[in-house]
């Protein structure tokens, strides 16, 4: 076939290179830039279940943009400080207020070197100029410490193996130092004038160190009293179950509705109004089992013994008699204990079976994954029980807090009883504030907050029901300046700790020896005063405790 005369044959498609030859170098660069931009956009849009496309893979082989390379670079404390100094007063204050969120993000993304650097940076800002930051109006605005919820979230990321992991201990040390009121100078524990009646040289003698954790010997609030046995056998007649008050189920909270969610429902029990029996004998102070006085005479009144290691913590001795402790134990066993298994530890598979949840978010997770927790039962204490305990301890509790703006009102009626078996442990944590719980007098419905936020707890009230078991101390953690580490770390430690270039300190811990009928009281509910503690692992025997709270009411200023 030949085209008609005068008709030109069709022209073949011209190669792109032919067009480029007709374009200037500037136009060629612009086209190349547009083409690369289109490839990057295509790569982001075409990532599917089978992974990135060829275009995306090609884009991934290229050098990432400079901003991304800077983000991957480890943070340096000196750079953060220089950048902060270059900001205006309002910008510096806003930058400091964002630090808790940045620390949370770095922990979530497992950038632990950056977490250590940011925590150290935060501590420097808090300590500088008496914890003051600038404002545009020429005045100074105080930089607040991290909120309580933030501290709880940080510590929950450490894991139940914190005390054995150098990295987790380094992070715990840094977290303690940015929380006002959590640090303590251990040198004061060597002074007899501050040690209380139970402290002495033997109480503060350091046990062998493990990494950055220095364990002090456990502290006994009544050292002159010999420890009893863990079993329920005693020299007094133990009550039979027929002598116990009758408790009925009054409320149930589904496991998925609990905070945090749990695999087990929470059942609450309360004594029947018609039942006049009581766990405690009367409101008067009981006599204790063993002679605990200096002159070997039985103590007949409740006494307060400060715990020298932890600020504002103390023990109330002789609060319950041994027989009353036995009644508490028998009552809890009669009602029945329920396992405590948070949904974050156990989850259900496709077949509905409970399986261990992934603990990848924990820095120092263990094989048990925190599954060995104490079983519990919850009661709402009313009438003689609550009134008797309150009458015995109210004169020894702080009447006011915060310069008189918070006034003591009572004990929380929500009593949580725990039973520890060998291996049971509660990893380091911070207790949160609780409202006053009760039943509505009109409807009989359980009210988590019966006062509408007017009454909030400020102290944990931990009542020990037995003693003589092995392990099971309530252990507190404090940051110490003793043996301050520098940038040179031991070669056997984590490479992350050797390269983070952040001075690391030493975490010290001391446990309180549980004594039957005594209550350990320590602050909680405020980020500036809460204490980091754990229920240390029980080695042998069975441990019973009652946990409730000391409530305060805010006073409106005129």
From TrEMBL:
Taxonomic lineage of the native organism: Eukaryota, Sar, Stramenopiles, Ochrophyta, Bacillariophyta
Statement: the UniProt record of this protein carries the keyword Oxidoreductase: yes
Protein name: Fe2OG dioxygenase domain-containing protein
Positions of region (Disordered): 1-71, 186-217
GO cellular component terms given for this protein: endoplasmic reticulum
Chain intervals with Basic residues compositional bias: 60-71
InterPro entries associated with the record: Oxoglu/Fe-dep_dioxygenase_dom, P4HA-like, Pro_4_hyd_alph
Keyword Signal appears in the UniProt entry: no
Domain Fe2OG dioxygenase as annotated: residue spans: 410-557
Species for this entry: Trieres chinensis
Cofactor: L-ascorbate
Keywords: Dioxygenase, Iron, Metal-binding, Oxidoreductase
GO molecular function, one term: iron ion binding
């Amino acid at each position: 076939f030949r085209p008609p005369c005068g008709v030109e044959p069709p022209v073949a498609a011209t190669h792109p290179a032919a067009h480029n030859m007709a374009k200037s170098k500037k136009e060629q660069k612009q086209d190349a830039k547009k083409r690369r931009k289109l490839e990057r956009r295509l790569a982001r849009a075409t990532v599917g279940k089978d992974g990135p496309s060829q275009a995306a893979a090609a884009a991934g082989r290229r050098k990432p943009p400079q901003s991304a390379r800077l983000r991957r670079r480890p943070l340096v404390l000196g750079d953060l400080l220089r950048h902060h100094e270059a900001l205006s007063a309002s910008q510096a204050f806003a930058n400091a207020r964002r630090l808790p969120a940045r620390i949370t993000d770095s922990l979530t993304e497992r950038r632990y070197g950056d977490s250590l650097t940011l925590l150290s940076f935060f501590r420097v800002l808090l300590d500088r100029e008496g914890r003051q930051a600038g404002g545009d109006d020429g005045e100074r605005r105080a930089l607040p410490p991290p909120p309580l919820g933030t501290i709880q979230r940080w510590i929950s990321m450490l894991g139940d193996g914190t005390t054995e992991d150098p990295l987790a201990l380094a992070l715990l040390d840094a977290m303690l130092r940015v929380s006002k009121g959590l640090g303590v100078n251990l040198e004061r524990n060597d002074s007899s004038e501050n040690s209380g009646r139970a402290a002495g040289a033997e109480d503060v003698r350091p046990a062998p160190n493990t990494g950055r954790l220095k364990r002090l010997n456990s502290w006994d609030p009544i050292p002159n009293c010999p420890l009893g046995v863990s079993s329920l056998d005693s020299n007094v007649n133990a009550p039979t179950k027929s002598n116990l008050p009758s408790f009925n189920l009054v409320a149930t909270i589904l496991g998925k509705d609990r905070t945090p969610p749990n695999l087990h429902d929470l059942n609450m029990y309360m004594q029947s109004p018609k039942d006049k029996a009581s766990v405690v004998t009367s409101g008067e102070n009981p006599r204790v089992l063993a002679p605990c006085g200096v002159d070997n005479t039985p103590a007949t009144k409740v006494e307060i013994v400060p715990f020298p290691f932890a600020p504002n913590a103390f023990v109330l001795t002789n609060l319950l008699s041994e027989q009353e402790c036995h009644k508490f134990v028998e009552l809890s066993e009669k009602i029945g204990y329920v396992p405590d298994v948070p949904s974050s530890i156990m989850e259900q598979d496709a077949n509905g079976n409970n399986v261990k949840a992934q603990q990848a978010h924990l820095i120092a997770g263990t094989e048990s994954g925190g599954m060995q927790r104490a079983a519990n039962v919850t009661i709402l204490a009313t009438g003689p029980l609550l009134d008797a305990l309150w009458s015995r301890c109210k004169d020894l509790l702080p009447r006011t807090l915060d310069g008189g703006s918070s006034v003591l009102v009572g004990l929380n009626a929500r009593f949580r009883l725990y039973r520890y078996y060998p291996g049971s442990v509660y990893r380091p944590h911070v207790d949160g504030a609780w409202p006053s719980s009760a039943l509505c007098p009109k409807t009989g419905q359980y009210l988590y907050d019966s006062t509408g936020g007017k009454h909030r707890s400020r102290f944990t009230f931990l009542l020990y029901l037995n003693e003589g078991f092995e392990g099971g101390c309530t252990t507190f953690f404090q940051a110490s300046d003793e043996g301050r580490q520098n940038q040179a770390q031991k070669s056997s430690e984590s490479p992350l700790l050797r390269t983070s270039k952040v001075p690391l300190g030493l975490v010290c811990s001391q446990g309180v020896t549980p004594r039957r009928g005594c209550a350990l009281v320590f602050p909680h509910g405020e980020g500036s005063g809460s204490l980091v503690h754990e229920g240390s692992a029980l080695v042998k025997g069975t441990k019973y405790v009652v946990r409730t709270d000391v409530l305060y009411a805010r006073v409106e200023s005129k």
